[in-house]
Amino acid sequence: MIELGVVVLVLGALWLGFALLGAVFKLLFGLIGGLFGLLGAALGLLFGGVALMVAVPVVMFALLPLWLPVLLVVALAWAIARAASHRPAAAPVAAR
């Protein structure tokens, strides 16, 4: 019975040791993977920003014929509202 207890104790100690070693590896690889993930996200933001800086003007010029009538109507409405909101000039005061 003592031998069985020793065998169980040794196997349990080995089991716990290897479980601890596995947890350390899992933590280490998780941290390394997180660093690679952050690096990938930063590079994705960089290249995505550059791609947007190239693509947005092209898209805007491509959509210009579609938006031009809308822009003209908005500009006309703005000009009318601006002209209507100006106060008339004050009448000059007659000198005595």
UniProtKB/TrEMBL annotation:
Keywords: Membrane, Transmembrane, Transmembrane helix. It comes from the Bacteria. The chain crosses the membrane at residues 6-28, 35-56, 62-81. This is Uncharacterized protein. It comes from Fulvimonas soli.
